[in-house]
Amino acid sequence: MATYCLTVARLQLALGHGARRLHISTAYRAKAKVSMSRFEPTSFISYEKLQSNIDIVRKRLNRPLTLSEKIVYGHLDDPHNQEIDRGRTYLRLRPDRVAMQDATAQMAMLQFISSGLPKVAVPSTIHCDHLIEAQVGGPEDLARAKDVNHEVYNFLSSAGAKYGVGFWKPGSGIIHQIILENYAYPGVMLIGTDSHTPNGGGLGSICIGVGGADAVDVMAGIPWELKCPKVIGVKLTGTLSGWTSPKDVILKVAGILTVKGGTGAIIEYHGPGVDSISCTGMATICNMGAEIGATTSVFPYNHRMRTYLKKTGRAEIAAVADEYSDLLVPDQGCEYDQIIELNLDELKPHINGPFTPDLAHPVSEVGAAAQKNGWPLEVKVGLIGSCTNSSYEDMGRAASVAKQALDKGLKCKAQFTVTPGSEQIRATIERDGYSKILGDVGGVVLANACGPCIGQWDRRDVKKGEKNTIVTSYNRNFTARNDANPATHAFVTSPEIVTALAIAGTLNFNPETDYLTTPSGEKFKLEPPNGDELPSRDFDPGQDTYQHPPADGSSLKVDVNPQSNRLQLLEPFDKWHRNDLENMQVLIKVKGKCTTDHISAAGPWLKFRGHLDNISNNMLIGAVNSENDAVNKIKNHLTGEYGGVPDVARHYKSMLHWSPGIWEGDRGIVDKTNLKKQGLLPLTFSNPSDYDKIRPDDKISIRGLKSFAPGKPLTAVLKHSDGTEETLQLNHSFNETQIQWFQAGSALNRMKEMQH
Questions:
Q1: Rounded Cα gap, residues 107 and 122, in angstroms
Q2: Do domains 50-344 and 352-516 have the same CATH topology?
Q3: What predicted TM-score, i.e. pTM, was given to this entire model?
Q4: Domain 352-516 class?
């Protein structure tokens, strides 16, 4: 079913505007000969505090708790008095730490600077992974990124040093892999400024992707608000084997729940099948839970997590987690809002796409589906790695497939790229020979960064508009996401299936049953992949890429050039003028899906994430206008001419036809809180069909703001160009605190008010 969104011009333009404390071990870093300073002294586990909060809540609710509830409620700011009702109330939480990728960290740090606070209140880190464009190969691309992004990296490094934030330099790896290797642990609550932060759920953590404004709240020591999530249980039975991988679990679940089925819920995996999945495999499953709209995903603590913790130098954490293991698994008899059951014995390898990650096909059927739908069968490029699938096990299984082909004299028919998830993974797979195998079969090893997964790919083998197929082990495959070509048909699957399809060169190949032909004409079938869960020797940490902040950075300076087109210090948004919002011109009525990729795509625009005015030139340029089915072509109702969405918005602003921002949707908005923090009004229609009553040339008034209160609907008056009017009821989910944000102009403005 189509989703529709409507926006009214804001004209600041941007949308995102016991006492038992276990200190992290020093043994691993000493053994690895890498600075231990990445582990902050304040980064400790307090399972006794978690236990205390859970006991309070369990007594109040008088029922068994899911694992998600234990960890979330275990981090309540006020467990004695917090109202708890899944799917309805807002929880005030105290996350343990914050992680930011370098694109979103720019605005988050600019906001933190504007707060006037001297230092972050919780352990926080910045990870340089988003600004490295894939072009030639790892070393060359990294060197170019350091040069092109020098100003941004210098800002993030110096701001981190001044305000107490750890800094992972470019080349260190993808944020989610670094978190899994260093910061996630069973029972921790971490928020990250990236939608795939839930990757940490593979280590029994509640890791949630948020907007930069939420990160600022937590770094400022303010309780963080989260709508009390529902809990969807996925019961796993049976055992993974053969060509079936952890990726197939989430590909199957995505097909069941669709891109919206997990909205407002935590996906909690449980059951006997869990033990057949590696820790990094669980992380893969949790990572892609973002594609079904889930708040996050999580697995219960087990021996696979214990093994991973020990292998990554955190044996002491594993020992304490064992002591408190009852906190880290669901209670017997707990209830889920929805249950899905998957038998891993029966699960077949899957491949999802094109153009959406919930269009699920068994690999055995995708060739026929492609022929039926006119999708190109030839695989132009196979891409493995990314934050979803770049573990040691992933690379090993892909290499085992590649080795079979090499032994028979075959190489990839398609282009083939490999993205290590971290410097530690890169160094270890190079040491253990996987990189050589993947290179010999035709692979190019890219930088330890996001790269093509987020559109950072200077692709040159096809022209824009040329219809073609790529297969990836990534998580998203929306139109033009990877290469800015709307004609690229992108499919997501496991690294081993990507490797097999890249060797075969076609979608119409099922490695479970089909044969390849050697140069001599011999037919052979690939054996199922195999790969060690973890290296038999210790991980090779590679180069030390971490910068720890000094104990006192107060004397340090952070410079932002006023003439910069990459960075811009923030000016406070205007306060609400204490009146209803009258006669606001509709900017665009959006048709179809309206994801973050449509609202503010990544790729080349990432360079402006620290410059509010410049990044606003990316606002809604990927959304389809309902008036003419065109992208980035809307009517300027002051001039009668058509122009791009940001251009028309800027013109309205210059003519003072603007208002505090309104964001309306018929099904709701996923990231409402982040919009609220920017002083916007995210609203939904009481009657979803009322969306159809709005015309692109309408003027809208929002009434009832003088008596704005939680649970009290607002009223929209539509003034049509023919002189008629209609009145609609609009719902909102604002609580008292969030209303104060709106009235102050933003959460940041409110934070400053409270300091005086």
A1: 18
A2: yes
A3: 0.87
A4: alpha beta
